[in-house]
Amino acid sequence: MSKKRILILLLLPIVYFIGWISYLVVAEIGVPQVKIYAEGYDPRDLLSGHYLQLKLNWQKTDCLQFEDRKCPKDRFAPVYRFYIPEQEAQNLEKLIRNPDTKTELIFTYPEKREPKIKELWINGSKWSQALKE
To answer: What percent of the chain has pLDDT over 70?
Structure first.
């Protein structure tokens, strides 16, 4: 096999993944975002592995942010996982368990695709910032 053919075969997966990541990034440009209240959910262990199990709380969510001014509960799963770094796990779990903590999930909300979690906010700021405070 020639060196040129080997080089092409080695570069093909790299080019494919760069194209795929570019598509995913471009697909999120201009997509509206919504903020939905959440609360810790897993009664056995809030922190399972390196993710938080969070249940959406529609009673606290501002439904006016949606197009028809109704919460589209059927477009969202009832429970979501938010993955976090291992070193932040215990501190974040303690913060989420506090009843005074305001926990919100930020979703991208495309018209014809399923909503995806973009960020976790705690008390009005990103979770990483909230842990520093």
So the answer is: 92
